[in-house]
Amino acid sequence: MQNIRHDHILEGILVTLRGSLAACPEVAGSEVMTSTLIANFLHSYAPDKLLTHLGGYGIAAVYEGQHPGPTVMIRCELDGLPVEEADKNQWLVPGANIAHRCGHDGHMAIVAGLAPLLHRTSPSCGRVVLLFQPAEETGAGARAIIDDPNFEKIRPDYAITLHNLPGFPRGHIIYRRGTFASASVGMRVRLLGQASHAAEPEQARSPANAVGQLLAELPRLSRITDNPYCMLTLTHAQLGLMSFGLTPGEATVCATLRAASAASLRTLQREAEQCVRDCAAAERLFAEVEWVQDFPATVNDDALVDTLERVCLDTGIVAIEIPKPFRWSEDFGHFADICPILHFGLGIGEHAPGLHQPDYEFCDDTILVAVSGFYEMVKSLLIGYGNREENTATGT
Fold first, then answer.
1. What is the DSSP letter of 377?
2. Which of 79, 236, 260, 338 gives 28 a disulfide partner, CB atoms 3.0 to 4.6 angstroms apart?
3. How far apart are CA 337 and CA 366, in angstroms?
């Protein structure tokens, strides 16, 4: 463990890779150069199988063990974020307004860091799959991977991932039993009435009053409590066109709904839909509600949490158990339909700028801590399985 965390050669390789990935951010569904860089890196460490174009531009490197056993999948994300303005971030592509403000470049470097270790020492049994997943930011990537016909070739028995966390001590592991990240869904409301000349507003059925009502009423559905909680955040509103001669006939309102559980999210969705129907009916408008970017809750498996706790204790990584789930969402929860999952966090600094903020930057000093944690988790799961099989065979 100490050798990995102080392997300056490996650290230099991964920091360089992270820089290359950060310099070519691509939005969800368009990760062409990113997947090429990852594939080229993995080729240098000779996986037993290398699958490409999974669920889009996803990549999976498979390292086979010496004996049969379970499949442990370690997953990260390929996509960057569209941003509204350029800034001083050294990795922002000039003129492209895309950046890795969520740290996915760091996540990729961490998971790629397992390739040299697995190439040097193959698993004792079972196999390890390093999955580089597209389109996490839109919530579409995990489901696209699972629905891909080639997914059966890498179907896991355990799936593990992490996310870097500003606001927590650098290099500390952050974990939670039960729900780690919240369920969320986007709501797009379209209100349709009748336009008219601005001089004859009485001839129109304008959605203006309904929009004002929705902007006031929808946020009141939020119930912010420790656990569980529900919240609705308005994200966009547009009334007609930018015109001084037209009474508008249509409008759009968008919001994100979040909850600590799937059941709570469904309740919040029903309440939001009823609010929309009531406001539209009062103004004689047609209302259309569309649900997009659906993220399930990410619910950790207790046995995998136990394994993480043991690994941190044995290796000296400081672990912090948090009392309530994060409000942000992750599409990793889809893998819980396939196998037990574990999502944990990696602190990158208590005063580090927050995720998605203009001055966010991943902390390279944490890469080897995370590589070490993943590697020890893999060894623990596969060696533990091998020991159980050996004991069964010998009757002990």
1. H
2. 79
3. 30
Encoded tokens for 152: 């059966």
Nearest CA among 139, 119, 150 for reference residue 77: 139
| Tens of pLDDT, residues 58-89 | 999 999 999 999 999 999 999 999 987 545 55
Long-range contacts of 213-219 (CB under 8 A, 24+ apart): 213/279, 213/282, 214/189, 214/253, 214/275, 214/276, 214/279, 215/253, 217/275, 217/279, 218/253, 218/255, 218/272, 218/275
| CA distance linking residue 284 with residue 214, whole number of Å | 15
Is 79 in contact with 134 (CB distance < 8 Å)? yes
Instruction: Report residue 395 as tokens.
Output: 């009757």
Amino acid at 184: S
67 to each of 48, 71, 125, 128, how far by Cα in Å?
A: 14, 12, 4, 12
DSSP string, 33-51: HHHHHHHHHHHTT--SEEE
Is pLDDT above 90 for 227? no
Q: What is the average pLDDT score of the chain?
A: 93
Mean pLDDT of 183-188: 97
* pLDDT given at position 228: 76
Lowest mean pLDDT among 266-280, 319-333, 374-388: 374-388
How long is the chain?
396
pLDDT digits (tens, 9 = 90+) for 33-44: 999 999 999 999
Task: Report in angstroms the alpha-carbon separations of 181 from 138, 244, 340.
Answer: 15, 45, 15
- Integer-rounded Cα radius of gyration of the chain: 24
